[in-house]
Amino acid sequence: MLNNSTVCDLLNIDYPIIQGGMAWIGTFELVSAVSNAGGLGIIGSGDAPTEWLKAQIRQTRERTDKPFAVNIMMMSPFLKDNLELVLAEKVGIVTFGGGNPGSYVPNLKEAGFKVVPVVSSVALARRLERLGADAIIAEGVESGGHIGETTTMALVPQVVSSIKVPVIAAGGIADGRGLVAALALGAQGVQMGTRFICSEECIAHPKFKEQIIEAHDRATVVTGQSTGHPVRCLENKLTHRFAVLEKAGASNAELEELGRGRLSLGVIQGNIEEGSLMAGQIAGLIKEVKPVKAIIQDIMAEAQQVIDVLGKFQSKR
Ligand code: TUI
Question: How far apart are the C-alpha atoms of 95 and 91, rounded to whole Å?
Answer without folding.
Answer: 11
